[in-house]
Fold:
Amino acid sequence: MSIPAKYNAQLVEEKWYQFWMENNYFHSEPDDREPYTIVIPPPNVTGVLHMGHMLNNTIQDVLIRRKRMQGYNACWVPGTDHASIATEAKVVAKLKAQGIEKSDLSREEFIEHAWDWTREHGGLILEQLKKLGASCDWERTKFTMDEDLNKAVNKVFFNLHEKGLIYKGYRMVNWDPEAKTTLSDEEVIYVEKPGKLYYVNYAIEGSDEVVQIATTRPETILGDTAICVHPEDERFYHLKGKKAIVPIVNRAIPIIEDEYVDREFGTGSLKITPAHDPNDKEIGEKHNLEVIDIFNDDATLNKQGLHYEGMDRFKVRKEIVKELEEKGFLAKTEDYMHKVGTSERTKAVIEPKISEQWFLKMEDLVKPAIEAVLKTKDVKLVPHKFINTYRHWMENIRDWNISRQLYWGHRIPAYYYAEGSGDYVVAESVEEALIKAKERTGNNNLKVKDIKQDEDSLDTWFSSWLWPISVFDGINNPENEDFKYYYPTNDLVTGPDILFFWVARMIIAGYEFADEKPFEHVYLTGLVRDKKRRKMSKSLGNSPDPVELMESYGADGVRAGILMSSAAGNDLLFDEGLMLQGRNFANKIWNGFRLVKGWKVNSDAGQPASSRMAIEWYQAKFNKTLKFVNEQFEQYRLSDALTAIYKLVWDDFSSWYLEMVKPEYGESIDPLTFEATVTFFENNIKILHPFMPFITEEIWQYFKERKSDEALIVSKYPDEGDFDATILESFEVIKEIISSVRNLRKQKNISFKEKLDLSILKKETIETGFYALIRKMCNISEVKEIDEKLENALTFRVGPNEFFIPFTEEIDVEEEKSKLEQELAYHKGFLQSVQKKLANERFVNNAPEKVIEMERKKEADALAKISMVEQSLASL
Structure:
């Protein structure tokens, strides 16, 4: 089988992914092996692959591929989320482009359009994940609107309602006027924006006096029902019991007193608009104030807005400021920076709105989830730093607003049976609802058409919080074999931005509905940011197309590049150069493979001593690296694991081992060395396979004919072996010796073809077995140990030992001394810069541990080099 000179990632990736799929390597069924299970954080069904998905799913694939090779029954369940707000917005926009308004359609007609959209676009992101190499069990793909998942949602809603944990209530909610739905507090992002503070005078009824208020939202003046001052504020004692006149509206409103007022802010008096501010609502309820809602659902003004009826809120703001000024009510205007609540999904500015919604009581539900993470550690967050964030959210949790005013989603299973009364029953199906309605009313003549299901849908998270349970049908059928075998799952990989939205709620659901944690570890990745540290997003235009990256650098190159710079929980600063580094690594591996495959084996040849030592060293190096890699996996430090493998393959194997064992040009290699080299190569690609699956499978299959059950993807992961640390330490010395000899050849223009002698004045033991390597790697005819220094020789030091190469050309001592002094000055300057950095407390306290470790290594290396140069100077 001829080996291509260049590695073609596109051809290789398509070939092997198809091969894995055809051989069903990704699929899992319960058996007698220990399971290892991951459920995918389901991406939005309308979405396309972005860099966050790339990072998250690469990590999951690395974990699942390694466990598969370690003999676990590995199961990675993929799927998508119906994403109520995002999908409905897409469908509404599509219909509008066709001249169709949502309001023109029945619920059923709109839902059919939504399903059409989902069928057309829903599989795109999963297909893109296949290009990445994601080894998901595609036969188990789930969608949060699947019939069995919908049934699970209804069952959970019914059970919670039966326990008295779900209720309806009028509350001040976050209203998204673009999506026309309520949002939970966690779906509101507060963005600092420049605004204005408007100072407005309200006349005091029956006098010429005025009271001044400051507001950022003058349009809400139309809904004012009181002016509030602090009861101890002397400035307003004389206004007690009086009324103020609302500008423009000419409505008389009471002047009330409440300790809530901050006497130092603004003018010390507040306008109270109970319908449009959560704090005003509380004051309104306390003082029995009238509630006047001035907004329609789309944030245009309703009839309470007088002559502004039908106008958008922000246009009204501009117009009402003009009117207030013209009529003499506006005293002054100031620039003002404030935080504005915006919808996470639509980016629309949120309107506080009083609305009847469905809520879930959280106070008791949350307790087992708090204990599991904070006390028993049954669920472990990685990295640990997110514990405090989790604690804060969970210990300050409020009731969950679970209803949304959307068509697309799981419809709330509440059924109204007496028109206009608001009386309802909750049931898992309309048939059960009818039975309950008959029992409730005593009217056996009721028909399905006589009962009406609630128009609202459930918050998207209300289905995804069941995900680890519902994908295995654990709600509907808790005794089924899959659920009993695969649940609880092992690892969850997700971003910290949904730690509360999703992770915490899944933990709550796990203990409530399965009496067990949903997963053991939560690996929280960092966010992918650009070089300016901005979160990558389509709106900023700073996110590259992941598919284009894979086409340019290969999936393996992108996977390696993105992981080598991504420590758990730390944000990744995206740099396309990392992808290039990944691609170059793939090419390096390919070239090394072609080199080895090109060697001719002479079955009669004996094994050189140099090869024996090289094999002994590399085996120890591999075993030490594998031990380190396994330790990093245990700590979810995948970046460090990959970096160690990268150094092993690039530096130790390709740059050193292959050079030490390769036969002379035109010569053959002995069979023992060749077999050892192939074994090393195969073990290298085994531990690299989870990170770079395509090129490793390609090389694995090229090495020899393999049966389908011998594919790399299902091969046995190497076991840790013992290693002799002294061999590794000795070889570091040998490497320095070899590098020093080669540098001297280069400096003195001594051809590598010219054999040299090397003499050693020993003050510290050197493993003599390695002399054979020095002879081969440096073209040395003889390595001799001597008792005194040689004259007329090139010299260098490695540690306390001094080395001499006889050289007939007269050495210019002053020139050598000058070179060494320049070298010494450079190393001292470098050392000073490193030590200055390490002396900076701010740097040491804030830099990642890996960065500090790297700086300390630079310091140690610089000190060692300074010592060597000083010793060489002393010997002149």
